[in-house]
Write a structure and sequence with these properties.
Length: 212
């Protein structure tokens, strides 16, 4: 999607409807500055108001994405496929970036935990914590443990929200809740879960986009 082209198209359609940026913003429940950013190619409308914007401007979603009116069905279908493919590529790239981030967070959490263990070794408490004369852990270890667990939880949440899980039986692709994600058996990014579509359990692999 060419943001500059889409922005010019929004401005053109708005003027054709005799609306100011302020009036269009009022109809959508947003500020005129947000409309101005669209028209200057600095941002795009949120998905939650795209359909309402198209209804007001009397255009289709595909025309909004393309930045021009599509009169012939052949051109319309071609542009629709191109836009869908581009959206899939962007979704895949975004989800891939999120999954890379989980690796970084996991490594940082492990490093923080290791620092906590080192603090125990320095204080000579590591053996005493598990021996008969148990001593409380150092403050540094407790802080490191909490930070590491928090980091791992956050990494798990990022992974859960990035992409979908595909049922090995019927191919249904689903997003899962926090409880299901953390309570399920898993190997890497493959989780053993029940499919809401066919009702069977299987090892569901992570996929970055849905197959429509």
């Amino acid at each position: 999607m060419d943001q500059m082209k889409t922005g010019r198209f929004i401005a053109q359609c708005r003027k054709e409807k005799g609306l100011t940026q302020f009036q269009l913003g009022e109809l959508l429940g947003i500020t005129d500055r947000a409309v101005s950013k669209w028209e200057r190619g600095l941002s795009l409308p949120d998905a939650s108001i795209m359909q309402e914007l198209c209804d007001i401007l009397d255009i289709t979603i595909n025309e909004l994405f393309t930045g021009e009116r599509l009169e012939h069905m052949e051109n319309y279908n071609k542009k629709a496929e191109e836009n869908l493919l581009e959206m899939k590529k962007k979704e895949e790239a975004a989800n891939r970036q999120l999954l890379r981030m989980t690796n970084v967070i996991g490594a940082m959490s492990a490093a923080v935990f290791l620092m906590g263990v080192i603090s125990l070794i320095r204080e000579g408490r590591l053996e005493n914590m598990v021996g008969w004369n148990r001593q409380p852990p150092t403050v540094e270890f407790v802080v490191a443990l909490i930070a590491a667990l928090g980091g791992l939880f956050y990494a798990g949440e990022v992974e859960r929200k990035a992409g979908y899980y595909k049922c090995a039986h019927c191919g249904h692709e689903q997003t899962v809740g926090t409880g299901t994600f953390f309570n399920s058996l898993h190997i890497g990014r493959t989780h053993y879960m029940k499919c809401p579509e066919c009702g069977k359990k299987s090892w569901q692999k992570k996929v970055l986009t849905k197959d429509d």
